Amino acid sequence: MRTYRLVSLDIDGLRNIERARLDTDVSAVWLFGANGAGKSSVLEALYLLARGRTYRGRKFGPLVNRDQSRTRIKGSFASEPDAPFEVRFVQDSKGAQREIRPPGVLDHDPDVPLIPTKLVTDNPQSLIEGDPQLRRLFLDWNTSLWNDRFKGQRYTFQRLLLQRNAALKAKWKDTAQWDSLFVEAAQSIDESRRAFLEGLRMPFLCLKADFPFLDDLDLEYDPGWPHGLALTEAMDACRDQERSRGFTLRGPHRADFYLSRDGERASLSRGQMKVVVSLLQLACEQLHRSAGAPRSIWLLDDLQAELDRNHVRKLWSLFVETGSQIFVTGVSRPSDPLDAGPSAAMFHVEHGVLNREV
Ligand SMILES: Nc1ncnc2c1ncn2[C@@H]1O[C@H](COP(=O)(O)OP(=O)(O)OP(=O)(O)O)[C@@H](O)[C@H]1O
User: Candidates 15, 43, 73, 123: which one to mutate for ligand 1, based on the most atoms within 8 Å of Cβ?
Assistant: First the structure.
């Protein structure tokens, strides 16, 4: 199985990190330090190399250090069974650019992340409780890494949705010319999403067996129209409403998934949500690997927050068992020498300065 490992990371002008070089040729990298020290910015640097964009919202402000004119990040990667390579990311006033050296070393599809990473943010609640759009993004991103046809299906659906909405907005009496194509496209992405979630359910249920507080929890899918109705029936039932509101009310653009208990949406504590999001990511990783995807590098932001020691240890060992490289942040150095795999490095982060500790 193809495996990537970040061997070294150079950061120049990212957030509060003016300049840092990290030797990361280890199985796990722990970054610890006070709030605002710059730990998550290191995860962000790796994410920028992998995906070419940040995972932090606009609210977090510009990523270029406020005393510098550009951000430069360089990552050297070891790759099995391929040759080592280097990725550079630059952001300045002209925009962002990424470059891989030597060129062509990875046979790269621009829509697939250059380096597979999976992230558990310090705000996992937003995935469980936030806007359904976040869950659709999660579902669609993960489905597209598992099913090559999904991206095309989604594109076709989005295009037909725009056309149908334009017809509704223009108060055309008849949307029939779009309806059959819309339903056909809707059914394709619905089938792919369902298949992915069904595939995800099994590893998720197995993984959560280790966490008795998640007993009876299940994953449910909402296709974006009422259960028990075909999409055409659901559309027929709201035609007048659609015409007066000027957009499509039922369809996969309203899809969602949620955690249920006894058939109802489950209420979860913050710690439980953190475990659930971690297990969802671990289950996605199993599915992606079964489809031949390379191992993902784990980015775990503030793993210990909200969790008791026992649950941190259980989750940690699940991440270690995947055999992938792990980057993890926390406000304090782990009090327990957790089983970090064959090799681990500890970095203390303070005001954007990183120091390796033994
Ligand atoms: N463009 C910028 N220039 C300089 N400093 C910035 C910029 N953007 C953000 N910062 C600062 O950089 C730091 C980045 O914090 P980061 O989120 O990486 O810290 P952290 O150690 O993960 O904190 P926490 O434990 O609170 O999550 C913050 O102190 C923030 O105020």
Answer: 15
